[in-house]
Design goal:
It contains 1 helix and 2 strands; from the N terminus they run H-E-E. It is an alpha+beta fold. Strands 1-2 form a two-stranded antiparallel sheet.
């Protein structure tokens, strides 16, 4: 594998922090989605869209 000298490589700690943030969101969310935005091979944004189910009383 060839790595360009200008390529920004995430440190192992950065990967762990991102993984922990995603795991925390997954534990909290019941209905919804998570979107991970990547630019130039780096995670720059994590969006959580949560849905709430409303049930009608009979």
């Amino acid at each position: 594998m060839v790595i360009d000298a200008n390529t920004k490589v995430l440190k192992s700690d950065d990967h762990k922090e991102i993984a922990l943030q995603i795991a925390a969101i997954l534990q909290e969310i019941r209905f919804g989605s998570i979107e991970i935005v990547v630019h130039d091979g780096r995670v720059v944004q994590i969006d959580k869209r949560e849905r709430f189910r409303v049930t009608e009383s009979k």
